[in-house]
Design a protein that fits this description.
This protein is mainly alpha-helical.
Length: about 150
């Protein structure tokens, strides 16, 4: 039996707890907050959020937790068990990011305002899909460092 470094277990726990969906949520919301601060026309007219925003934030965190439990952790465990290379992680990341972005695009678009699926999908993919792909690539990079 070989003795394994405790750091390997810490890296594995971090990967399973924070990657891909919690990290993608953090990256996506960070991009939206930065864009809001840069694009806001009048910074003096900032209004505090109402109770609906607070409840919406909690619901969004619950959705992220469900994605992580039912999709993120199993996909990382399967990719690890198959000893997939970068290509496997990239394909998995793009498929998951595309499906989730497509689902959110269909839910969030407002046809009465002229928003089509073709208009909404690139925006949702940029805010949600790209961070998911980056999180999977980070998980791959941490796996390789942990296996050395």
């Amino acid at each position: 039996m070989s003795q394994q470094s405790p750091m390997r277990f810490v890296i594995r726990a971090i990967r399973l707890l924070l990657l891909p969906f919690p990290a993608a949520y953090f990256l996506g919301t960070s991009v939206m907050v930065i864009a809001d601060h840069v694009m806001r026309p009048d910074r003096n007219r900032v209004e505090s959020g109402d109770a609906g925003e607070y409840i919406g934030g909690i619901l969004l965190l619950l959705v992220v937790a469900k994605f992580q439990i039912f999709l993120g952790v199993p996909s990382l465990l399967i990719l690890d068990a198959k000893a997939c290379r970068l290509r496997g992680y990239t394909i998995t990341a793009f498929v998951i990011a595309t499906v989730i972005s497509l689902a959110f695009s269909m839910m969030l678009r407002a046809p009465e305002l002229g928003e089509t699926l073709g208009w909404m999908f690139p925006r949702v993919f940029a805010i949600l899909g790209v961070p998911v792909v980056l999180s999977y690539l980070l998980a791959f990079s941490l796996r390789r460092k942990g296996d050395q």
